[in-house]
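Input set for joint prediction.
Command: fold jointly, output tokens.
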Amino acid sequence: MSLPAVISLSVRDLYRWYANGDHWRGSQGIPHRLEEHVAMSLAVVLSALLIGLPIGLLIGHTNRGAVVGVNLANIGRAIPSFAILVIGAQLFHIGAKPAFLALLALAIPPIVTNASVGIREVDPDVREAAKGMGMTGWQMLRRVEIPLAIPLIMAGVRTAGVQVVATATLAAVVAWGGLGRYIIDGIGQQDSGQLLGGAVLVVILSLSTEIGLGAAQRALTPAGLRHQGSAMPGAAVVAVEAKEVEKFAPAS
Amino acid sequence: MGGNSLLADVGQQWLRWSYVTQSSHRILDALRQHVELTAVAVAIGLAISLPLGLAAWRYRRLAAPILGMAGVLYTIPALALFALLVPITGLTRTTAEVGLVSYTLLILVRNVTAGLDAVPPEIREAARGMGMTPARQLFRIDFPLAVPAIVAGIRIATVTTIGLVTVTALIGQNSLGQLIYSGLNNQDRTPVTVGAGLSVALAVAADLSLIGLQRIITPWARRPRTA
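tokens >
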């Protein structure tokens, strides 16, 4: 079959799948699957913030445990999220519980790393000035270091959020719901309408998450630091990787 | 009943050596396919990213659209991207590779431009003063000096790809991910441990080899500590 023919057939399948009213109702319906996906992602990211942010701020502020933290994060990157999900399913049986815990394990490292790097990168002169003004450690963290680290802290939230939404799609393999259900079932049942319908919904949700969190990052960034945030997709990943690149740049 | 609980007990063990010895052929095959899928994806990704990164660096107006497109591809979850490709290329290795390549682009393009950006202007000035043509300057000065940043990008892209390859099991491709997937389906922990463990080991080994490679091809970067 020629490519245009394949595409027109796919578009027809896609249209039929969305046009079927049954796909918009009940516990298998699009609204319910979308709600599951969003509710799970929100719960994971908020829990990850609750756990990861204090750790990251502490590491950055005290400058202790930074090496351990960064190395743990690097090892974390090497463990496939698919494996984490499956191991979660074997430890806690299938369903929402392993999905939540596996996603949480993925979301915490970027939040910890970004928060600690953000705090550590605060200009020493600024810190010196704050100390000179008689600020206590706690005041300095709250009024100087955190505001200056907000762009990177939010980059961490953005990376974690996008990763969680993406990996929640995979959680359908451990028998959880969410939008990934349609893709996994579409492959299993050789139903291209369901497969493509699910994929398009996942793409829309992922891009909305990336763009939404990018906008939040910009909105929360203090006016004087605005140039650091970008709403472009992938910008958060690039911002942190760029810091790693600087270490390798040729010396002038 | 008794037979079932015995089976369940076997599946509960995280590592059975009998599985490793009996399935060694299958494990090695999965490892080989994993390496192949990764190597092809990173190589094609680099072949696309070098000219794209150069274009984004040379013509600033192209930087936003190029990085934007790569960013969109990077944001789309792997499973969704594979699903979108299935009607065109089927449950094949091509589908897997197209998806994997598209994830490397953002990281590689960005590092190529960052590397070229970091070349000190004085060196470029000196090269022009020596009468180098722009093409010669690009290949003799700019690219070599950008190598550390490009290798840094290849390292991140490789480690990321090794993880993503496991997902290709869901579209029927053989890799260490297939071991993990079979463990899930058969309620057997050992193949999951083996697949995940080898995947991490592969990522670490690839990362260390790339660091070594970089040291070999950029001897000038090994400056003595006391200068």
